[in-house]
Specification:
Elements (H helix, E strand, L loop, with lengths): L2 E5 L2 H13 L5 E5 L5 E3 L2 E3 L1 H11 L16 H8 L10 H15 L4 H11 L5 E4 L8 E4 L2 E4 H7 L8 E3 L12 H6 L3 E4 L4 H9 L4 H7 L4 E4 L2 E2 L2 E2 L4 H7 L6 H7 L6 E4 L7 H6 L3 E4 L7 H13 L1
Helix pairs in contact: 1-2, 1-13, 4-5
This protein binds guanosine-5'-diphosphate (GDP).
């Protein structure tokens, strides 16, 4: 069974671990978000690709939901001593990933090739593709100016009022090699529980990807990151509101129209099933909050069965 999953970071990582546990090697392809990539200390950081890679390699710090387990922060201390900005926390082992990536990019290799190399080195069985090899940078527009996603989310702790979210550079990007084929040839396309605005939005803003989802022969099945009127974690609620979307599975379905076929929703949102069906999306009620490995696998099974 060939599964292609669109993924952000922390929420996606949990479902992807569950899917990987249910699938054979080579059956899972991940199309990852690069809209929140950032340059830190001169290094190219791809937080969502790294979260997914570390999760599938069994190396993720599951408490934080990002970075590597068994991590130290000596370089960060050293950088603080030089007065360098330290609001974006990079661990020592994690730095190795960014050094290897940056070196390869400077040598002219595409991000997709570097991402594959890193995943192979870390013995990840799944194929991890960035949505694009071209720069895609989500811009958060606030009353006081424009922010990169990491400035908004990490530095300013998602406290700024959001006026709009822009994917200007995504509109000029091309899908990375293999992305459109992975969507077209999948037996199932999965949209992980991820921030619809800043994780899935930048993926489908890359020209060609939304069309491929619409034309896919497989059903596109999503998992709602919104449960009981709020995001399970993070700023998805505020960002959806800023984009004029209701903070509910209905807003998720609207963000993924017209290509979403089915959406897994929490039992607390079961009453929205009829409204989802009216929007052309089949609602599947399931336990969508993943609090441990058993729930990750159970949700993955529900996604595969939906
Ligand atoms: P980010 O880049 O780290 O923000 O990663 P994602 O976009 O993948 O994850 C954030 C989204 O995942 C948030 O909108 C959360 O509400 C959602 N999320 C996190 N954990 C879970 C979970 O266990 N179940 C569901 N359904 N959603 C989750």
């Amino acid at each position: 069974m060939r599964i292609t999953a669109l993924a952000g970071g922390t929420g996606a990582a949990k479902l992807l671990r569950g899917l990987a546990a249910c699938l054979g090697p080579g059956e899972l392809t991940v199309v990852g978000n690069v809209g929140d990539d950032a340059e830190v200390w001169g290094l190219h950081v791809s937080p969502d690709l790294d979260t997914v890679t570390y999760a599938l390699a069994g190396l993720l710090d599951t408490g934080r939901g990002w970075g590597r387990a068994d991590e130290s922060f000596r370089c960060l201390e050293g950088m603080a001593g030089y007065g360098a900005p330290t609001w974006f926390t990079l661990g020592d082992r994690d730095l190795a990933t960014h050094l290897v990536r940056t070196q390869a990019l400077r040598a002219g290799r595409p991000l997709s090739a570097v991402t594959a190399d890193i995943a192979a080195r870390l013995r990840v069985a799944a194929r991890i593709l960035p949505a694009s090899d071209d720069p895609v940078r989500t811009t958060i527009v606030t009353p006081d100016g424009r922010l990169g996603f990491q400035e908004y989310f990490v530095r300013d702790k998602a406290l700024a009022e959001v006026v709009a979210v822009e994917y200007g550079s995504a509109a000029r990007a091309r899908p990375a090699a293999g992305v459109l084929e992975a969507i077209a040839h999948a037996d199932r396309v999965v949209v992980c529980p991820s921030n619809p605005v800043t994780s899935i939005g930048p993926i489908v803003a890359v020209p060609g990807i939304a069309d491929a989802l619409g034309a896919a022969r497989a059903r596109v099945v999503g998992v709602s990151p919104i449960v009981g009127g709020a995001a399970v974690s993070g700023p998805a609620g505020a960002l959806m509101r800023a984009c004029g979307l209701p903070v509910s599975p209905l807003g998720v379905a609207r963000a993924y129209a017209p290509w979403l076929g089915a959406l897994l929703v929490d039992p607390r949102d079961a009453a929205l099933a009829a409204a989802l069906e009216a929007d052309g999306v089949r609602a599947v009620v399931a336990e969508v909050v993943m609090t441990d490995r058993a729930r990750e696998v159970a949700l993955a099974r529900a996604v595969l069965a939906a």
